[in-house]
Amino acid sequence: MSEKPRIVGIDLGTTNTLVASVRNRIPKVVPTDRGNLVLPSVVALSEKGDLLIGKMAKDQMVVNPKNTIYGAKRLIGRQYASRVVQELKEYFTYELLEGPKGDVAVNLGGSTYSLERISGLVLGHAKRISEQFLGVPCPEAVISVPAYYNDLQRAAVKEAGRQAGFEVKRIVNEPTAAALAYGFNRGLDQNVLVYDLGGGTFDVSVLQITGNVFEVLATGGDTFLGGVDFDNRIIDYVLETFQQQTRVDLSQSPIAMQRIKNAAEAAKIDLTLIPNVVIELPYIEERKGKPLDLRIPLSREQLNALTRDLVDRTFDLCDRVLTDKGISKSSIDEIILVGGQSRMPLVQQEITRHFGKPPRKGVHPDESVALGAALLAESLGNIDAVTLLDALSMPIGFAMANGKFRKIIDKNSVIPLTTSFRLPGPKEDSPIIELDIFQGDSEFIVDNEYLGTVKVPASAAGRRIDFRLNEECLLEVVVELPTGPRHVALATRDTPDTLKRLLAEEKAARARSQPVASPVQTDSGLFRSIRRILGRD
Ligand code: AMP
Fold first, then answer.
1. Is 340 in the pocket of ligand 1 (CB under 6 A)?
2. DSSP characters for 235-247?
3. In whole angstroms, what is the distance from residue 174 CA to residue 514 CA?
């Protein structure tokens, strides 16, 4: 047995985490200690005070919801005061708290855990499993993240990897990793569209593959559109049908809802293979001391009718990404599917209709991201094995006094890059200049994500400031001071006053049930769908 340490590629998913490594030049997924290929991304504290990770944590979720942390991928790197977190916090079964850096944290058994620590525990477990299976130390990793992750989210995942004991050699975008799994060392010259419909998110990226050069031409998506929305349509249908049959509203019973949720997802997955199923849940409720059973047939046609608009929305997003960059549909050579929900026959059928060609077979939708991350990991020490030219998925800029967003780096800019501009003067007579940095698609900061604040002495007004994005899409800010260039760490502890004020106004407007005057960002139906997702994801 060789003792040579091995580098691994990790797909740190919302629901599951996968590890892969290259063995004899072929990337392969590492099975878990239980023989599965996936490790549930779940951490829990049992009644007895034991820390559980993975399947053991997932298995006890229904009976221990307050101390079972799932879906960390949706929270990691977010600010506690952000709109998304404030909107979502009541829909989690566990408690969200404010962490020491203003970040969101969770309460696990009375202690505050950062999301980095939670994801670090999952990654640490993945590390142990890999080392056991491969029989060698695995000190280094490449970890994938969604293309739309902002700077803070990327930095947080890197930190989680560090806490797990890894040296994180690279953070890679999931669609780029999937394209690598498809095109590495195949000598291709193609444009590929990566269509990634997972459990909670939809991501689309177009890449040009020329030999082993992978260039992202455009990227976009919806962070709140995924398999869970399909499940929710079935859940609504089941609730309505049952109410019509019995006049009993099951939506008020958490246990019944959990059972319906599980059955809805299972029915959806079965309908990928077979045309008809029956959702059967014996003793779902009691009426006058007698058990009530639930039995509702569902056909693939019915499922298609219930969810067609969700599938259509993915194509609207694909078209938007293509037209933004002036790419024609006919110039796409291959469509690669990623994410479990892309297995749905309606999705595959509509892809064929929309793009005039069927999706590529032979690229495993669940494994390709981990396999691609492993290929990249393996090639890192190997000069010019792979060149990745990634693109920024959301603009970066700073806040103006009126709450508007002044863009500094455009969406789809090729990274790594440096953009320079002159520092504006301080507010009134303040001795310091404060620039509140945001990332997002909206022209209003309140819709975008707060990344942090650059604080420099007022004497720096008019001096050059560089925004540098490295190949991992992590932001570095450098100010040219009289003493020379100075790296400025972004301070994130205090939410900027302008943002606080806007968020408070928005909350008040909502309380009065008035429409909020800021535009809706790309996440259409954002909060409507997340409410459902997070309570039950
Ligand atoms: P992922 O985030 O890639 O693990 O995707 C998980 C989502 O894919 C969940 O919503 C699953 O219900 C869904 N999914 C998994 N397998 C299938 C299938 N065969 N047909 C339809 N949806 C599926």
1. yes
2. HHHHHHHHHHHH-
3. 38
Please tell me whether the overall predicted TM-score, pTM, comes out greater than 0.85 for this model.
yes
Locate CATH 3.90.640.10 in the chain. Answer: 227-304
Residue indicated by tokens 């194509």: 315
Check if 199 has its Cβ closer than 6 Å to any atom of ligand 1: yes
The CB of 11 under 6 Å from ligand 1? The reply is no
Q: Which helix (H) or strand (E) holds 453?
A: strand 449-457
Whether residue 265 has its Cβ less than 6 Å from ligand 1: yes
**Residue recorded with tokens 């997340």:** 530
Report d(CA 299, CA 287) in Å as an integer: 29
Number of H helices, E strands in the chain: 12, 28
Question: Which tokens in the block code for residue 107?
Answer: 């309460």
Atom in ligand 1 nearest the alpha carbon of residue 272: 20
- Rounded Cα distance, 369 and 13, in Å: 10
- Determine if ligand 1 sits within 6 Å of the CB of residue 174: no
pLDDT tens, position by position, 56-112? 999 988 788 899 999 899 899 998 988 888 887 877 889 999 998 889 999 999 999
The rounded Å distance from CA 240 to ligand 1 centre is 24
Ligand 1 centroid to 17 CA: how many Å? 14
Which atom of ligand 1 lies closest to the CA of 366?
3
439 near 395, Cβ under 8 Å?
yes
Judge whether residue 492 has pLDDT over 80: no
CATH of segment(s) 396-496: 2.60.34.10
| Amino acid at site 321 | V
Q: Domain 227-304 maps to which CATH number in 3.20.20.70, 3.30.70.1350, 3.40.910.10, 3.90.640.10?
A: 3.90.640.10
* Delimiting residues of CATH 2.60.34.10 domain(s) in the chain: 396-496
How far, in Å, CA of 456 to CA of 480, rounded? 11
Does ligand 1 come within 6 angstroms of the Cβ of 341?
yes
Distance 342 CA to ligand 1 centre (A): 7
Higher pLDDT, 385 or 339: 339
Residue type at 514 in one-letter notation: Q
Give residue 141 CA to ligand 1 midpoint distance, Å. 26
Distance (angstroms) between ligand 1 centre and the Cα of 22 equals: 26
pLDDT per position as a tens digit, 344-365: 999 999 999 999 999 998 888 9
Q: Tell me, what's the pLDDT at 446?
A: 87
Question: How many Cα atoms are found within 13 Å in the side-chain-facing hemisphere of 257?
Answer: 13
